[in-house]
Amino acid sequence: MTDTLPPADTTSTDAPSFAQLGLNARILANIARAGYAMPSPIQALAIPPILAGKDVEALSRTGSGKTAAFALPLLQRLLAAPRPTTTEQEGAPGMVRTLILSPTRELASQTASAIRTCAHGCQLMIGLAIGGVPKDRQTRALRGGADILVATPGRLLDHLADRTIGLDATTCLVLDEADRMLELGFIEDIQAIAERLPTRHQTLLFSATMPPAVATLGRRLLHRPLHIAPPEATSPPPRIRQQVAFVAATRKNATLIALLKRDTPDRVMVFTRTKQASDSLARALVSAGLPAAALHGDHGQARRDRTLASFRRGTLRVLVATDVMARGIDIEDVMLVVNFDVPEQPETYIHRIGRTARAGRRGTALSLCAPEERQLLREIERQTSARITAIDPT
Ligand code: AMP
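A: This is the predicted complex of the input protein with adenosine monophosphate.
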């Protein structure tokens, strides 16, 4: 592996090692296997309290190493605690020991596979419960329970209603990308799920932003939590070159096509505000001979998986996505992010451009800004203290 996330504190020789954070030899061996040399800032801050069983509320972007920040200590805790023995009755719900809730199917599958890597050789059952795939096969797999279950809220509630699984013995709940889950309307589902857990359990909340609704959820579900915000969580990574091209809205298609025809980096992600816009832009790019496709929630799961797989492989070089879809997708080597429209929220801008320059790499973020969007751009510059350089797109 060539991941090179910056270590926790590059300016000091006191940056802790994974061993100093309290992880044991078993877990350290898997970290070495994954090729991680030093903990990232979020890992350095979150691993010790999670290991100690505390509730944690952490501000963290995807790309910061947050999955390992919760997965590593939770695996160590699961290995240390014996699996509770139940009198297994025929038809009894499968027992889930740790539950991770994710906003989207893509993020859930990605998280499950990252955890499987961290759990190599640990003989733990890592399950996945997501919509968009037939329930029967999932049901069969989950009947025996899971040490860690990664799930999207809707499908999890289905399995709970069917009594495929139960949360009576669940000792830890992780809410990943809590802000996104709330934006997608999962607040009631989350509450309903949390109520199914035993009173005493550990809760971890990870979120890229902390709007009031997330803070309220945190107050409701977390017990005397430790609040964590590594400095990198609140500003875009410095390795991203931020650019803007001022063009009329009607010229955006032609401008983007010309730019990409001149030089198509290996992986480009283009963001549009709406699903319709992403479809029509992808069509325009394809007609211009560019290897592009749209990715959004109206496409069936199989199609979304295929699109993502070809983008990962590099056969599809331009992915045109909506914010909901792109959020949390961990694809390395995205060289260029294009904001086809200037996002209305500075947080969205940070999420979008965070798709590039992941794991210590460099990247460029280009916003196409029409005259009527200049005010939005100024607001982004003000709130994120970003230095966005104007370029001539012609
Ligand atoms: P995440 O924020 O969990 O989506 O992780 C982003 C990427 O960073 C993933 O590809 C991880 O494999 C990688 N990563 C996580 N922790 C480290 C680390 N300590 N050193 C290097 N890479 C890491």
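The domain at 3-232 is CATH 3.40.50.300 (Rossmann fold). DSSP finds 15 helices and 15 strands in the chain.
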